[in-house]
Specification:
The protein is α+β, with helices and mostly antiparallel strands. It folds into three domains: 3-175 and 245-356, 3-Layer(aba) Sandwich (Rossmann fold); 365-548, Galactose-binding domain-like (Jelly Rolls, Sandwich); 570-679. Helix content is 16%, strand content 39%. The protein contains twelve helices and 37 strands. An eleven-stranded mixed sheet has the order 1-4-5-7-6-8-9-12-13-15-16, with helices on both faces. Strands 30, 31, 32, 33, 34, 35, 36 and 37 form an eight-stranded antiparallel sheet that branches. The longest helix has 16 residues, at 117-132.
């Protein structure tokens, strides 16, 4: 079945953009031809499902095409976003192709894990196929958010000749060190939550309206092949070949085409985007907004941007040879926030758009603050040693690696500060702005062979509220860096540790106090150490280096139209209880159902929902449970998947119990339980 629908976008407002020599060029909206489904051959008897948006033009006119490559079901789940971008880009003269990775949506094959070599090789074949189409000028770009950003970088590292430019958004360059699985080398809660969500992706049924009668056979093969992915990820506890595959940070030089990096300060992948900006040697640009893990025009928190305007400048420059002015001006544009997302509950943040001509910037002036007894000082104090016993739960005010909603945002840090070693600078007499990576340097010893070090940089306002600015965490077994093999600590031995905090831009207000808070860990952000740890810190030379950006009299003009988006994906209910030292965290997303316009499928489900608990001073009592379900209903077609993953541990092993269930028309046809025992060393 093939549908060819034409949509005339008469009412679409397409902003003008600046051309070369200061001229203004107006993009007149084009009519758009939408084609679906399209099946792209990538191997014998293996086709990938796609949708296409092609600009209408004069006879024989050809267009560049931008390709987005993810496993999130172009026919239904991701359809609204695909329609959004397809219409906007194609109306601006750039065709758009959305392709489901093999084993997802209506694509053939099986999806057995993240970022497989076959996925990347298929991507190269899709690019070649797109370039050969009679409506294409032979130039292809890649873009995408999250998995789409990952796949963009990974396919670009294979250097397909038709790929002329890329735009990865909110993506990583180092899969082990800066992804959902591990935080500073320690297993993260997000590892379990994403495992539940990813199993919904791997096991999702194809739509019989697209693939026909074979849909049930395809679905059963997918569900039966879906692994206990949380256990697999826990089996790889260092930066081994498993994680290095698909990590473009291993060789930035493999990327041969121009790159436009996009991220937000509220997104944990900003760390990778900053490294990519330093490491890539091809023509490049970067833009960091105030938002989180989201596209710039759907930004939360705002302000957002008319991102189609900027994308069209980028793609028409590199794929169509037009002088759009996109490469003029600074390499790095960013938002300088005057507040954090929690201060505005994900609304628009006060601040300004700013820029640096190059990165790293010679304008950044490091300020070294030394750790004294409860204070931050500009001069080194006398030598002294302080100890910290990690027998309390610290981290409840920062429970999520990537916050997606208001209830997941870092809250007032004061309760965690009271359980930490705290070092305060005297109240600021004038505003102070930072841009870059704060670095904490310490001499540390532990009484246990396995320990962590966590640091939070906060702004304490005159009313006493402590706002999280940035943080860092390191499993001290990775003290030699992410590329080295983890090595146990020798109890009592002192180690020189450099702990980079996550890259950040922030304006500290006059009257506020800059606070550094140090603890052994953050829970439930990461799994606790096997035993209660006592850390000893030598303070004589301990210091925190802040990347201070002098406040300019004026910033360079900002060319991208600013918007005030209204975006909401609902808010999970998060309940935290502390009773006699026992901590419980319950998180549940509201069950939601929606009808896919133009398709009629009802999508519903909930999760990832979580039940977490631990007794203070007893890390062996830590227990995480995550559940998620997903359902597709249309007429007599009714498919549902459910997963429950429980994680516990003793001193030597992680224990993962998982139950996966698939139902058709309400009846269970597959129920699988698996128990994995995985060494912690």
């Amino acid at each position: 079945m093939k549908a060819d629908r034409r949509t005339v976008l008469a009412g679409l407002a397409v902003q003008p953009f600046l051309a070369g020599a200061g001229e203004t060029q107006t993009i007149k909206p084009r009519a758009v031809r939408k084609i679906e489904p399209v099946f792209i051959p990538v191997a014998p008897d293996l086709n990938l499902a796609a949708r296409l948006w092609i600009p209408e033009g004069a006879p024989g006119e050809r267009f560049p095409v931008v390709f987005e490559y993810i496993p999130y079901r172009t026919h239904d789940s991701y359809r609204p976003l695909d329609d959004h971008w397809g219409a906007k880009l194609a109306a601006g003269g750039v065709a758009f192709a959305r392709v489901d990775i093999r084993g997802s949506g209506e694509s053939d094959g099986l999806l057995r894990d993240e970022y497989l070599a076959s996925e990347q090789e298929d991507g190269v074949r899709v690019i070649a196929w797109l370039a050969r189409q009679p409506w294409c000028n032979g130039s292809v770009g890649m873009r995408g958010l999250s998995w789409g950003g990952f796949s963009t970088l990974q396919v670009a590292a294979l250097a397909p000749p038709e790929l002329k430019a890329i735009m990865p958004m909110c993506a990583t360059d180092m899969r082990f060190w800066n992804d959902a699985h591990y935080v500073g080398g320690a297993p993260g809660l997000t590892n379990l939550k994403w495992a539940a969500g990813f199993e919904m992706v791997m096991s999702g049924p194809p739509d019989p309206a697209v693939v026909g009668k074979r849909w049930r056979t395809m679905w059963r093969k997918r569900a039966e092949a879906t692994p206990s992915i949380a256990a697999r990820w826990l089996e790889h506890r260092s930066n081994d070949a498993y994680w290095r595959h698909g990590s473009v940070g291993v060789d930035y030089g493999a990327i041969k085409c121009p790159v436009y990096l996009v991220d937000g300060w509220a997104d944990s992948y900003a760390e990778s985007a900053e490294r990519l900006l330093r490491g890539i040697k091809t023509p490049k640009k970067a833009l960091f907004g105030p938002w989180g893990h989201i596209y710039p025009d759907l930004a939360f928190p705002g302000p957002g941007l008319d991102w189609a305007f900027e994308e069209l400048r980028w793609w028409r420059h590199w794929l169509a040879g037009e002088d759009t002015g996109v490469m003029e001006g600074p390499v790095f544009r960013f938002y300088m926030p005057y507040a954090k997302p929690a201060d505005t509950r994900m609304k628009t943040l006060p601040g300004r758009w700013a820029s640096e001509a190059s990165w790293p910037s010679p304008n950044i002036k490091p300020r070294t603050l030394y750790l004294a007894n409860g204070r931050l000082e500009d001069l080194p104090p006398a030598d002294m040693e302080v100890t910290y016993v990690a027998d309390q739960v610290v981290g409840l005010a920062k429970p999520e690696w990537i916050p997606y909603a208001v209830s997941e945002l870092p809250r007032d840090q004061t309760p965690d500060d009271t359980k930490s070693l705290v070092f305060d600078l005297e109240a600021l007499a004038a505003p102070l702005e930072i841009l870059g990576i704060p670095v904490l340097s310490l001499q540390v010893s532990s009484n246990r062979p396995s320990a962590k070090l966590a640091a939070r940089l906060c702004e304490v306002h005159p009313d006493g509220t402590s706002t999280l600015v940035t943080s860092g965490l390191l499993d001290l077994r990775f003290r030699s860096g992410p590329e080295a093999a983890p090595k146990a600590l020798t109890p009592g031995e002192t180690y020189d540790i450099d702990l980079p905090l996550t890259v950040m831009a922030h304006r500290f207000s006059p009257g506020s106090v800059i606070r550094l808070s140090i603890s052994e860990s953050l829970w439930p952000l990461v799994w606790p150490s096997p035993e209660v740890v006592t850390l000893s810190l030598k303070l004589g030379r301990a210091n925190l280096v802040l990347p201070v950006r002098p406040i300019p009299e004026a910033e360079a003009a900002f060319a991208i139209p600013v918007t005030d988006p209204q975006f909401s994906r609902g808010d999970p209910v998060l309940v935290i209880k502390e009773t006699d030292g026992k901590v419980e965290v319950h998180g549940a997303w509201p069950a939601q159902a929606s009808s896919v316009a133009g398709v009629g499928t009802i999508l519903s489900g909930s999760g990832p929902n979580m039940e977490l608990s631990m007794q203070a001073g007893a890390p062996e009592t830590c227990r995480w449970v995550v559940t998620q379900n997903s359902r597709f209903v249309r007429g007599g077609w009714d498919c549902e998947m459910r997963v429950k993953i429980e994680m516990t541990a003793d001193e030597t092993h992680y224990l993962v119990n998982e139950t996966f269930t698939a139902l058709e028309n309400g009846s269970v046809w597959l129920s699988r339980h698996r128990r994995d025992r995985i060494s912690r060393t």
